[in-house]
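User: My instructor asked us to take a sequence, write out its structure as tokens, and then describe one feature of it. I'm not sure where to start. Here is the sequence I was given:
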Amino acid sequence: MKEVNFIFEKKYYILFFILFLSYVLTAINSVGFYKDDEHFQILEPLAYLLGINNTLIDDPTGYYWEWTSGYRIRPWLQPFFYYQIISLVKQFNINDPFIWAFVLRIFNGTLGLISVFILFFSLKKYFVTYDRLQYYIIFFTFWFYPFLHVRTSSESLSITLFTITVPFFLNLFESKIIKANLYKVLFFGFVLGLAIVVRPQIIFTIFPFFLWIVFYRFYFYKLFITFLGILISISLGLYVDYLNWGYFTNTYWQIFQVQILSGQMQGFGHKPWWFYFITILKDLSPGFSLFFIIGLFLFCIKKINNIFTWMTLGTIIILLFFKHKETRFIFQIYVFSPFFVMYLLSIVSNKKLKNFIFYLSLTSNLIFLLIVCLLPANNKIHLYKNIFYENLTDSKIYYIGNNPYMINNLEPTFYTNFLPKMEEFKNSNNLSKFYLVTNNYKELEKIKKNYSCKIN
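Assistant: Let's start with the prediction itself. The structure tokens for your sequence are:
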């Protein structure tokens, strides 16, 4: 396809600012995590390296089973890299875990923001043939970008690294020049390898991506150098695992053996084959998600040989074979969803229908963008933050019912190590001044009769 030159006017700069502002607000306000793994498989290993969590390795309760000697299926590279960042922050006498987490969100968000600009300027030519303000607005107000990129999860960092490499490899293999800059290819192969090391499951998207290259753009020299770069990253990942385990272990084989061969993955629940199609409709904001599916369907029918058809459908088809399914497994597909909505807008000729698609997509995106920018990802972590900054170290704190420091039977020591101890409240306690944490308002009304309570 002939590359189209897009001319930028000053009126488009406001969209760049909106995207930048959304990342800053999300990094500030999106405290906590979307899924437990984001915290307990990344920040808790980081806490272990910082000497805060002493139960991660061979935890007798079994909650950290992925890190036990018999499994060892979690790569150390991401927590180890974060450890270097936080060690640098601590050099400035900053021992606030909430600032640490904020720094990591800023780092991830910055890298993610760069990947978004790279994607837009490099890939829009594959989906639209002329410049329209509507396309820019749909893309730069997409709420999922800041939501995903400020997360400290493995899928967030892995997807960011992967999407940074996609435009480079497209240009590399579309070029008919057999020879290529050795160091550039090696570097981007290395970055792609890092995406695999951070989250090996990204291979389910990388495989159809390179399968298309083999079928349509095969260049042995370019592929060889690319895979050499990937091999260097994988070796680095194994070396970091060796440093932290104290002995060599093939983490990638362990993942395959435990999750796939032994069927451990199936123990986390089964979903029907149509799960991903339904979850897209529910998760990506109403309106926008529907038009994404329609755009994807039409794109794949009309451009069956296109690399984005292979990459998106290929990922979904591979994942359909696994009974255990989760929404986050297809997050890398969501990254490309604005392009498919842009494609749908570009092929609709009816002006009223085009405007309907545009305004409904924009409205639903903006609503979700406000939620992402202003609300915490996890209310419990937000509670920890409030307790920490109230400076209640020497105060008596109680709770009613379940201990709010625990999340699914796990304690996020990355934060709670810096908080005062909390005990279960009993009416028999002879107390004068204390703090009570609860969301049980019925019990609270009873307690208010015996104590003078101030509610925050």
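For the description part of your assignment, you could build on this observation: The longest helix spans residues 97-123. Try explaining in your own words what that tells you about the chain.
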